[in-house]
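Table 4 source record.
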Amino acid sequence: MASRARRVSSRDVAAALLFLAAVLGASPVLAQATKPSPPAAAPVKLDTVTARRGDIRQTVDAAGKLQLHKWADAYAQIGGQVKEVSVAIGDTVQADQALLEITPTQQPAKVESNRAQMARLQADLADQRAQLEFAQLQFKRQTQLKAQNATREEAFESARMNASSATARVDAITAQIHELEATLKIDEEARQKTLVRSPISGTVVSMAARTGQMLAAAQPAAPLLRIADLSDMTVAARVAESDVTRLRPGMAASFTTPGYPGRHWSGKLRQVIPIPADGTGEQGKQAFYTVLFEVKNPDHELMSGMSAQVQFVVAQARDTLLLPANGLGAQDEEGQYNVNVLDAGQHVGARKVKVGLRNAQQVQILSGLAAGDKVLVGPVPDVFPAAAAPDAGTKSATASGS
């Protein structure tokens, strides 16, 4: 039995040795199979912008004020006291409509006296004409008698002198009447000047007259009322000297005003005042120039003095290829810009593009890109291979502008 135990023990030992050898031989494979794999790299987030078709405008921005376009002042032409003011600020008036009445300083009694004198002179003239007619008949009779030697010389000469005297008196009274007629005409003109009339049709926008106010004829004429046609308004914009050289008459202009959020008004540039605005361009200060254009105001919504944010359209293009301005890279010596385009396979390729109009947000692409191209913003990330050389067969963008 001892020998059997030894045989079993030897067999068991041999089996244990074989098992151990198998385990030790398979351990590298098991270790390799159970070794954890490294974590997958996180996807790189790319900031891109897309080239799309649309409209672009290149503008000059400026601040401005609304002003009256057509207006006229009404003045007093005689001295006196304001008797009655028949309108108020905001009233609509017609041309030649009476606005106020003035009681003149000249006494009305003087006017009545001149009229009475005229009546008396006209009566005297009628009497003298009757006497002239009688004197002429007497002279004619004496002339006939003298031809027949039937009258004395003294009677003939007396008749001739009476006729001449009567003619002179008629002429004298006629001259007095003409002189008085001129005086009465002046009186009538003065009477008409007591009514201050509207020079144009429009709205009363200011008034410096009140009932009972004394107006001196000797003082410089000052406007009593201002009448304005509010159907059109003028926008006066202050444009910096660096921008005003780009403006020309006839350019499209538009503006907004805080009183009407979201609304736009438009017009055409009329005039650039060629001298700097007051207080600008002195002692090293930047010069600003006043630029004027008109806008329709049929409902009188816009009022004088309102502020305006103005845009003058220097150039524009419609249905052209556009790219956000932050997608452009550096500019080369030829005036083109470098961009990096990301294709559908997440490959980056370098291109050169030619640009046209541009503003703060967008730039017009004349060549180098097509609609839908995605342009990388900023440098190419390190995880990507170096950007390829610019494509020799650069794509072109069809641009239409006006």
